[in-house]
Amino acid sequence: MEITEKILDRIDQLEQLIENLIRSFQSTPKEDTKQTFTERETSEILKISVRTLNSHRQNGFIDFHKNGRRILYTQKNIDDYLSRGKKKAFQFK
């Protein structure tokens, strides 16, 4: 009987672990749900031409994702690009 009780206790522990894992996966946002923007949409957001966006992408100034032949940008890609262009203001001493 002692072995049976140990096995049942272990099963209960495993059930708790599985429930915790399921809860953590349900609360974690999925990568697929992130909004993506096309080249045209991204160029409109950044107020630059599509050609300039292509140039910046080719020179590594902005990160992107490729889905087949489509080039997509996430909000994080856009935010990172914008933050790289910021410069600190001149301060008088």
Could you give the distance between the termini? 80 Å
Judging by the overall fold, what is the CATH architecture of one domain? Orthogonal Bundle
Poorly predicted runs are: none
Radius of gyration based on Cα positions: 24 Å
Number of E-type strands: 3
CATH topology of one domain: Multidrug-efflux Transporter Regulator, Chain: A, Domain 2
Any chance you could write out the topology, listing elements then pairs?
Layout: H1 2-27, E1 36-37, H2 39-46, H3 50-58, E2 65-67, E3 70-74, H4 75-84
Antiparallel strand pairs: 1-3, 2-3
Helix pairs in contact: 2-3
What would you note in describing this structure?
The protein has a domain of 51 residues: Multidrug-efflux Transporter Regulator, Chain: A, Domain 2. By secondary structure, the chain is mainly α. Strands 1-3-2 form a 3-stranded antiparallel beta sheet. It contains 4 helices and 3 strands. Helix 2 packs across helix 3. It is elongated and about 75 Å long.
Task: Give me a quick take on this structure.
The chain has 93 residues and is mainly alpha-helical.
Task: Describe the structure using short key phrases.
3-stranded antiparallel sheet; Multidrug-efflux Transporter Regulator, Chain: A, Domain 2; 93 residues; 57% helix; 4 helices; mainly alpha; 3 strands; elongated
